[in-house]
Write a structure and sequence with these properties.
By secondary structure, the protein is an all-alpha fold. The protein folds into two domains: 165 residues, no CATH class; 106 residues. It is built from eleven helices and no strands. α2 runs parallel beside α4, α5 packs antiparallel against α10 and α7 runs antiparallel to α9. The protein binds protoporphyrin IX containing FE (2 copies).
């Protein structure tokens, strides 16, 4: 299991305390970004360069420069947000600008290219930009959706408490199988020895554990109890109740890990792809000046 599972979700998502960042100052940044897109679109429609619109016309250069400056500015956000608290402008304001101007890039960069995309280094920067923007969109969705689900799923317990409860149920199950016949012990003991929880990134994010020993024990326990004495049947019922409680706790603990994982995973695309984008963009700009 990963050690970061105990980290308070609020620590990782300052944006959560500002769910209002999308409506910050009555959509100020949405309005500004829309204005920018509007001006760029009007200029693009009115502009009739010889040879058709492309990145190498004066408008192409202007839009490309604006888009590149916005990208550098958005990257700066990463450093900027680390000085949260000392800021004159609250974090919500920066995030709102980041999101709306980030989205405006889809329009600005596309108009810059004059809709001329191809299999080349120029289009690589375009594709990386789209990847960064798409991951950012998922981030906004994740920040809006998962905090509520995490709180509802935890039922007031922390993750450490859930794991503690699972460990104490394991102890009770171990007690309950003492004196049971071999078939029951063989079936139930593995459920107390390993908890199918955590593991690979895929398992954490999918929260699917088809090899869960607790689920296997639950499935087999009733069949194994057939033909047992009445005392043993009563003991088996107790084991069944304990296994059911454990399965429910495991389900909640896995969901907790899944939700927290989904709230972070997109940053593993957003941030590295930002740096790949900056490198591709620098190559694009150098290439166009080199061949000018
Ligand atoms: C300072 C900023 C920029 C400058 C000076 C610039 C310059 C240019 C020029 C001169 C062209 C025309 C190349 C040609 O016709 O062969 C071009 C095309 C293009 N640019 Fe930019 N650009 C800039 C920013 C950007 C940005 C931010 C993106 C997207 C992330 C981008 C993506 C493209 C694409 C996809 C093309 C079309 C390539 C093709 O024709 O296949 N550029 N750019
Ligand atoms: C090309 C455009 C973009 C670039 C270069 C960019 C870059 C960045 C960088 C470097 C960070 C800091 C991450 C960190 O260090 O934790 C960040 C954060 C963030 N980005 Fe973007 N971004 C872009 C577009 C977008 C878009 C379009 C959205 C949403 C629709 C978005 C949503 C976010 C969010 C929500 C965060 C805050 C993460 C946090 O505080 O935990 N980004 N972005």
């Amino acid at each position: 299991m990963t050690s970061d599972v105990t980290v308070n979700i609020r620590d990782q998502t300052p944006a959560l305390e500002h769910q209002s960042f999308l409506v910050y100052r009555r959509f100020l940044h949405l309005k500004l970004a829309t204005l920018l897109i509007g001006v760029a679109t009007v200029a693009y429609v009115m502009h009739a360069p010889m040879g058709g619109p492309s990145g190498s016309t004066w408008l192409g250069y202007t839009l490309g420069t604006i888009a590149a400056l916005i990208i550098v500015w958005l990257t700066w956000f990463g450093w900027r947000k680390r000085s949260y608290g000392t800021a004159r402008i609250p974090l919500a304001g920066w995030l709102s600008a980041h999101v709306y101007f980030g989205l405006s890039l889809v329009f600005l960069a596309t108009l810059h290219t004059g809709f001329q995309l191809g299999w080349n280094v120029h289009t690589l920067s375009y594709a990386l930009m789209i990847l960064v923007i798409a991951s950012g969109l998922f981030g906004v969705f994740a920040y809006a959706r998962y905090p509520r689900l995490i709180t509802a799923n935890r039922l007031g317990a922390s993750q450490i408490q859930m794991l503690g409860q699972i460990a104490s149920i394991d102890g009770e199950i171990r007690q309950a199988i003492l004196g049971m016949n071999d078939a029951v012990v063989k079936l139930v003991a593995p459920a107390t020895e390993s908890d199918a929880i955590g593991g690979s990134v895929w398992r954490q994010l999918s929260a699917r554990y088809l090899d869960c020993p607790t689920a296997a024990a639950l499935r087999g326990i009733q069949a194994a109890a057939r033909g047992l004495s009445q005392d043993q049947q009563i003991a088996t019922r107790k084991i069944l109740i304990l296994l059911t409680r454990k399965a429910e706790l495991l389900h909640r603990a896995r969901r907790d890990i899944q939700y927290k994982g989904l709230m972070q995973i997109w940053l593993y695309v957003h941030v590295p792809m930002t740096f790949a984008l900056l490198a591709a963009l620098a190559t694009h700009i150098i290439a166009v000046f080199f061949y000018w």
